[in-house]
Amino acid sequence: MNTFYNLVVVVQVLSALIIIGLVLLQHGKGADMGAAFGSGASGSLFGASGSSNFMSKSTGVAAAIFFASTLALAYFSSDRDVAVSGGVMERAAPVTGPAAIPSTSTAPAAPVDPSLPTAPAATAPAAPAATPDAVPAAPAPAPAAPATEVPK
């Protein structure tokens, strides 16, 4: 199987190089316009009235070989006998140390010595009660001129 895979890779690379060479050697569509009006032979396989020449047909054959080898390589690469897994993250090693994500379970708090005095709880100022018809405060207006320019 490995030998066949290597053979398909070689066929694909050779067909790609052949396609590149054939495309670079071909005339453009505009180059054949003069030949269509009688200014010379166009080098067609079937004469001046032929629909395509030897180079364009060879390019089509090389492209078909390239696509077939690409499909064969895709088939060989997807032919695996492994079970479907959840992805890369399931195979990753767990991180320990200070970079690890803390777990949801917390350590029990240290026992409190009842003979020690406790600090009073800090109280926050109470927020004003919101009324149903209260309008929220508007944001501060943007400055009229940039800070780097002096107003005139």
List keywords for this structure.
single chain, 152 residues, mainly alpha, elongated
Number of strands: 0
Order of helices and strands: HHHH
Proportion in helices: 25-40%
Strand content: under 5%
What is the tally of helical segments? Answer: 4
- How far do the termini sit from each other? 81 Å
Characterize the overall form. Answer: elongated
**How many whole angstroms does the radius of gyration measure?**
39 Å
> Which blocks of ≥5 consecutive residues have pLDDT under 50?
none
Decide which structural class fits the backbone: mainly alpha
Sheet with most strands: none
Summed over residues and divided by their number, the pLDDT gives a mean of 74
Descriptive notes:
- It is a single chain.
- This protein has 152 residues and is mostly helical.
- It is 38% helix and 0% strand.
- It is built from 4 helices and no strands.
- The mean pLDDT is 74.
Question: Could you give a quick summary of the protein structure above?
Answer:
This protein is mostly helical and 152 residues long. 38% of the residues lie in helices and 0% in strands. The chain has a domain at 2-80.
Topology summary:
Layout lengths: L1 H24 L7 H4 L17 H25 L9 H4 L61
Helix pairs in contact: 1-3
